[in-house]
Amino acid sequence: MLQEERFWNSSFAFEVLPPNRTLRTDALTASVDRMCASLPRDILFERIYERFSSDVIARGVFLECLEPYILMDKLVAITPVVMKDFVDHYEEKGMLQNVEACIVHLNIASLDIHQVREMGIVCEMCDWKRSVVYCCLGW
Q: Greater confidence, 95 or 31?
């Protein structure tokens, strides 16, 4: 078990983070980046994400750290729960174009099609629609 996994599974993980928001965000980003690169996906998206999602700042940092891994195709599948939170987080920040860029890199099975469809209708996205259709048709 990695040191980060033991730390984030502990009950005091968020209490020992720096109170300064910038330092806290930097510490969380470094930890999430290391875990994305080294932990099995089931641990990352179940136990670790569950722990991060209990803290508003940590949840946002976790979700934003996923974007570069998705865009580089190092992360092609996300659990539907994490994907829903990912879309919601970016929608709240007014950054749905980032979600569109990510969707075309993800395995269709990790998407909540209804949510992505609704988002696409609202934002008039085109690339993700083609990607979803092609993937469903096996092209």
A: 95
pLDDT score, position 90 = 92
Look at residues 114, 112, 122, 66 and name the one whose alpha carbon lies nearest to residue 91: 122
Name 73's Cβ contacts closer than 8 Å, sequence gap at least 6: 105
With a cut of 80, say whether residue 126 has pLDDT above it: no
**What is the rounded radius of gyration, in angstroms, for the C-alpha atoms of the chain?**
16
Q: Which ranges of the chain would DSSP assign to H, the alpha helix? A: 3-9, 21-38, 41-43, 49-52, 56-71, 80-92, 96-103, 113-123, 127-137
For 29, the token pair is 């980003």
| CB 11, CB 4: distance < 8 Å | no
Helices 56-71 and 80-92, packing angle to 10 deg: 100
State the pLDDT confidence band at 11, using cuts at 50, 70 and 90. very low
* CB atoms closer than 10 angstroms to residue 33: 13
Residue 56 exposed, middle or buried by CB count within 10 Å (0-12, 13-18, 19+): exposed
| Stretch among 31-35, 37-41, 117-121 having the lowest mean pLDDT | 117-121
